[in-house]
Each structure stands twice: as C-alpha cells, then as structure tokens.
Design a protein that fits this description.
three-stranded antiparallel beta sheet; Rossmann fold; alpha/beta; single chain; 37% helix; 13 helices; globular; seven-stranded parallel beta sheet; 2 domains
Amino acid sequence: MKFLITGGAGFIGSRVALALAKAGMDVTVVDNLSPQIHGPGSDFPLPLAQSVHCVRGDVCDRALVARLLRDTQTVIHLAAETGTGQSMYAVARYSETNVQGTAVLLDAIVNERPKKLRKLIVASSRAVYGEGEYLCPNHDRVFPASRSTSDMELRNFEPKCPHCDVVVNPIATTEKAPFAPSSFYGLTKQIQEQMVLMFAKTLGLDGFALRYQNVYGPGQSLTNPYTGILAIFSNLVRQGKGLNIFEDGLESRDFVYIDDVVAATIGCAAPDIHGVMPLNVGSGSRTSVLEVANAIVNHFGAEVAVKVTGAFRLGDIRHNFADISHIASLTGFKPEWSFAEGLRQFLVWAETNPAGEAGFENSLNELRERGLMRDSANYT
C-alpha cells in the first residue's frame, strides 16, 4: 500500500510513518519543517529520511500536493498548527494552514481524481467538543457552555449545567457530543474534519476523523511553548524553577501515549476497516494538572515549589476524557500504556535532551497583552 502523510515529520506523523514503513508500506511524507515545531534550520530526522520518501513542502502548494497524490491509496492528513492559546491571536496563520491547507488537499483530490485513492484520515482533536460531556443531577447528560470570565474571576472553575446552573461532573465524552469549540484551534479542527468527512462520503471513500486527546511521549517538542504541559513542566523543573499551576490545579486531561496513538491511527488505515465517521483516540481516563506537576517534580527529586495561582486562560476547558468504545469496536483498539508508565518513559527520554528555554513565559505574556489571560494575586 502507498501512503501520503502530510505533516509527516511531526511528533505523531513521523512515528506513524516509521511504523508503516517497518510493516513494508510505501510511505511519502510532506512537511514544511516549521521552526516553531522543529526548531530553526531543521531537516528531516535521519531515521525518517532513511525509511520513507521525505518531501519538504507546504500543504498549501496545490501543484505539489497533486503530484504527491498520484498512486496514493491512503492519505493521513496531519499537517496543522496546534497551539490552542496561540490560535486565539494568530488567527490568519491558523486559518491558512488548517483550513486552507485542507481545502487545497481536497481540491486536488476532487479535480485530479487519483485513481487508487481509497481512504482519507484526518487528525482532528478533542478541542472540537469544547467542555464536552457532563452529568447533571437534575438533567442527566449535558453539554456546558464555555465558562464565563466572571465565574472564573470568582474562582468558580467548574462548569455548570446550561439548564439549571448547578455544578456538573465530567463523564466520558462520546462522538455524539455536539460541536462547541472554545478556541479558534478547536474551530479549525471542526472545519477540517467536516470537510474531510464530507468529501470522503461524496467521493465514495473511507474517511476517519481521529479526535486525538492530549498526546504525549518521547520525541515530542521540548521547545514549542504553545503545546504540551509535560514538556513545559519537565523543562522548568530540570532548570530548578517552580511550577505555577493555572486555576486550582484540579483541571484534568486525557493523556494518551504516543504508541497508543500510532496504533489507533494505523488501525484505522487497515484495508479492511471501512466507514465515514469521527473517532475518539484517547486513554479513556483523566489526570489532573496538579497530579502531573507533582509526578514530574517527584521523578526528578527536585526541590522546587508547585504553586497553585488561580490564573486562567480564556478558551481553556476544565476537564476532558474520551469514550473510546467506538474505535475499540471498529478496530479492536485498546490503550496499552498507563499514564504513570508513559510519563516515566517520557521523562527518562527528556533527561537526554537539554532543558532549554522554551519561551513559555513569553507565550503567556502574548496572551496577557491581548486580554486572553487573567492573573489572580494571592490565590490560596
């Protein structure tokens, strides 16, 4: 089988490419090697360059995309800008890469009609849900709106029922949850997946939008300040710096290990898996940010402060974890990695890399300057 992976030098894409190549597949990756993600002056990493066809280029280059689609059977579209907070002010850039890049890909598919193409897979995100699914004691399953600034300034961080204003409890979010993105990044992911699934259905192709949760593991960028609290926290702790935790530290995420994400993605690419649908890809459990911070400090045996600040970013969600029963029934996917073991593997790997300045504080200042972050003094 012949695969084309856009964004194929990225954290997820490179590992999917290597796994497919190891299985004997013909793989081409295209990537613009964005300095924010890969660092200035980067090239394709040697293991990738030795195993697959690597093309440096932009997904918005229609002529290039059309050429690469020839004889391709499966497209895995991962090329995207990925910073949730950054998307709220780098609006044109996120629109150009995520929306226009996907439009260029689909335009080439529709008009060039690559004869062997059978399947489209796009990297979506749990960000399409916004807050996702919760349980109200009065109204059963509900889908809270984005939290109000006034509530969070009063340190009322938990979402409320949209019908009775009672605080609600998070439950696993299914693919049936409505779209309600609270960031521009989430909105671009919604548009991406709807575009891909629409054209897959129209053209009679298999199409899957994989709603990745918080992906982590060895190999993720340690220098990109706009994504990945594990990388940010590990850098700070190794530099002997304390950790300032947003809100009350009890906000939680579904952290899914990279090997499980690769397995889920390749599972959907299998030739006997058919359909047109979104699918959650996660661990199915949630971990609080405070738990993450303490685990990282304990791993390094560091004597640094972990301070809960009460600060918050507009557009952040409170909790999330995925219901993964759908992908399990379709492909047999089952996460193999616990968060404790996955985190250990990541931190052992991180120790082999410099704990450089990743510009995290600068990224927060960019949010403050635009009124997208609130600091809370003397939080207890």
